[in-house]
Design goal:
The chain is mostly helical and 171 residues long. It has one domain. It contains four helices and four strands.
Length: 171
């Protein structure tokens, strides 16, 4: 019975990975017209808040990856993921793919924000920049959204691997 549950968890893990890859593919940067937004302190604060949220998500990603790999290097008497076990290996690899993807999209998002600020800097005068490309409702925000959902998928896959390693593995 436990083996069937573990196989079901592995199938769920694969479905999560496939759905997240499809989501990321469909959400990738598409050529679009980027509207300008009046630049002021509130817009700058909003951008900084999104960057901070992205950074915190990245930090959580690193923490989850450390916990996941902790299951590989666990001591003999502790629950651990065994890579020769197909269901656990599937969940482990799926979680790693999603978490690495989340980290990569964090870097992509920061790159987009840096690009937007460089554009705003080009229209700067003594009063400051007048407009900035809209990073909230354009394709420039897509990496942030993808980062978040890949992190969620990675956490779910990690939880599945943890549950399998701790509760369902045959003694």
């Amino acid at each position: 019975m436990k083996n069937k549950v573990r196989q079901t968890l592995a199938i769920i893990s694969v479905l999560i990975v496939i759905s997240m890859i499809i989501f990321a593919w469909n959400s990738r940067n598409k050529a679009a017209v980027i509207r300008d937004k009046p630049f002021n302190e509130l817009v700058a604060a909003g951008i900084q808040l999104k960057v901070e949220q992205s950074r915190k998500s990245f930090e959580l990603t690193v923490l989850v990856v450390a916990a996941l790999w902790g299951l590989i290097i666990a001591k003999k008497d502790e629950a651990k993921v065994v890579l020769s076990d197909a269901p656990e290996c599937t969940m482990f690899v799926g979680a790693n793919l999603l978490l690495i993807g989340s980290a990569a999209y964090h870097i992509s998002y920061l790159s987009n924000i840096a690009y937007v600020y460089s554009l705003a800097g080009g229209i700067y005068d003594e009063k400051g920049p007048h407009t900035i490309p809209d990073v909230f409702e354009s394709h420039l925000a897509n990496p942030y959204n993808i980062q978040f959902w890949l992190l969620i998928g990675g956490i779910v896959n990690t939880a599945l691997a943890l549950f399998s390693a701790h509760k369902l593995k045959k003694s």
